[in-house]
Write a structure and sequence with these properties.
It is a single chain. This protein is α/β, with parallel strands linked by helices. It contains 15 helices and 13 strands. The chain has 2 domains: 2-196, Rossmann fold, CATH 3.40.50; 229-412, 3-Layer(aba) Sandwich (Rossmann fold). The chain has helices at residues 12-21, 33-39, 51-60, 94-103, 123-134, 157-163, 173-183, 196-227, 231-238, 261-268, 274-284, 286-297, 321-329, 350-354, 374-380; strands at 2-6, 25-29, 64-67, 75-78, 111-115, 143-147, 166-170, 191-195, 302-306, 334-338, 359-362, 385-388, 401-403. Helix 8 (196-227) crosses helix 11 (274-284), helix 10 (261-268) runs antiparallel to helix 11 (274-284) and helix 12 packs across helix 13. The protein is globular, with a radius of gyration of 23 Å.
């Protein structure tokens, strides 16, 4: 089987790697010329365990080729971004539409086209299907169209692509069957065949469920800071109940999924999706909440920001709330940023970031931040104070003051 994958990012590249590892011929398409050139040398541009070796081997064995343009194939998979439209929170399908149009000259009867990009309910039937029909294809007869959303965790993408159950949402039952044959090349989880619109809404609701539950934890943190209760103790005690699993509060919600997908549902039914919108508003308010308490801890000076990735132990900083927090504080404070998982010429070492700092602000739960050299920190800092917004630091020497979501009420 030959597979052409449009988009070689956090989903497209791991997917390409697994198809190639299972002896499929893969063409990975991306608009970034530098990324394409590097991939053809076996050099990957994302931090994700296991992918580098697979791509290197696939390039050497001529099972993987990166390209700026599509090629003829048996199956085409679209994994391009889908941001939201700021004005009305609707799903911006422009990248998906462009990707669909780009493969039309290479389509042949009998091909399968799969959209993995997260899209709003009804997008496949109302927007994507007509693109191919207008090109002369009959969906379900000579071209098979499906929406098959990814559902993976950064840092475990390869393992989860293989073992997670997969939603296969065909425009017709035959489309679902053909798409399942494509994923059958490497997926060991259950292939769940359904309609495209059900697959679309299922993916959006998976991330909305998580976003709503995070919002509940964040709202609890705000309440506890206001009324003088340790939020972390409340969560620990409540989670002893066999049917309760409160999440941990944080500095906000990042990533391409949780911070965006709930809006796709809200935009379809804004008068009804009130809990969804309120949860988004709550999570979006957390950078302001963090900044408010930073200002209560120190009124001026230098802040050492630790971590800008939205997800711990990854270099993925898409939609990270850390950048909003940094922007809001940068006008009043000197800020140095340290993130061991992101290459950025403006970032500095931990030693340099903490030198003469008045506050360490932890915004990401990298393992490197869970246990640090506190002797170095005490020697480097003007005032050894840490504000841990991820609640990952369990104990510090008595000379260091630690704030987290358990004791912010002390500042009121």
């Amino acid at each position: 089987m030959k597979v052409c994958i449009i988009g070689q990012g956090y989903i497209g590249l791991p997917t390409a790697a697994l198809f190639s590892r299972n002896n499929c011929e893969v063409v990975g398409v991306d608009i970034n010329e530098k990324i394409v050139d590097n991939l053809n040398k076996g050099i990957i541009h994302i931090e994700e365990p296991g992918i580098s070796d697979i791509i290197k081997n696939a390039v050497e064995n001529k099972l993987y080729t990166a390209s700026l343009t599509p090629q003829k194939a048996d199956a085409f998979i679209i994994t391009v971004p889908t941001p939201y439209v700021v004005e009305n929170y609707s799903c911006d399908l422009s990248y998906v539409i462009t990707a669909c149009e780009s493969i039309i000259p290479f389509l042949e009867k009998g091909n399968t086209v799969i959209v993995e990009s997260t899209i709003a309910p009804m997008s496949t039937d109302e927007v994507i299907k007509p693109i191919f029909e207008n090109a002369g294809f009959t969906i379900g007869e000579d071209l098979y169209l499906a929406h098959c959303p990814e559902r993976v965790l950064p840092g475990r993408i390869i393992e989860e692509l293989i073992h997670n159950d997969r939603i296969i949402g065909g425009v017709t039952p035959e489309c679902s069957k053909k798409a399942s044959e494509v994923y059958g090349q490497f997926v060991e989880g259950e292939l769940m065949l359904t309609e495209a619109k059900t697959a679309e809404l299922s993916k959006c609701m998976e991330n909305t469920f998580r976003d709503v539950n995070i919002a509940l934890a964040n709202e609890l943190a705000k309440i506890c800071a206001e009324i003088g209760v340790n939020a972390l103790d409340v969560i620990e005690m409540a989670n002893k109940h066999p049917r309760v699993n409160l999440h941990s509060p944080g500095p906000g919600v990042g990533g391409h999924c949780l911070a965006i997908d709930p809006y796709f549902i809200y935009a379809k039914a804004p008068q009804t999706a009130k809990i969804i919108k309120l949860s988004r508003d709550t999570n979006n308010s957390m950078p302001d909440f963090v900044c408010e308490y930073v200002r209560k801890i120190i009124s001026k000076g230098k802040i050492a920001v630790l971590g800008v990735s939205y997800k711990g132990n990854t270099g993925d900083d898409r939609e990270s709330p850390a950048y909003e927090i940094i922007a809001k504080l940068s006008s009043d404070y000197e800020i140095d940023i340290h993130d061991p998982h992101i290459e950025n010429p403006d970032f500095v070492s931990l030693d340099e970031a903490t030198k003469d700092a008045d506050l360490i602000l932890v915004l990401c739960d990298h393992n490197e931040f869970k246990s640090m050299d506190y002797n170095l920190i005490k020697e480097n800092m003007k005032n050894p104070i840490i504000f841990d917004t991820k609640n990952i630091i369990k104990e510090v020497p008595s000379e260091i003051k630690l704030y987290n979501y358990g004791n912010l009420y002390e500042l009121n």
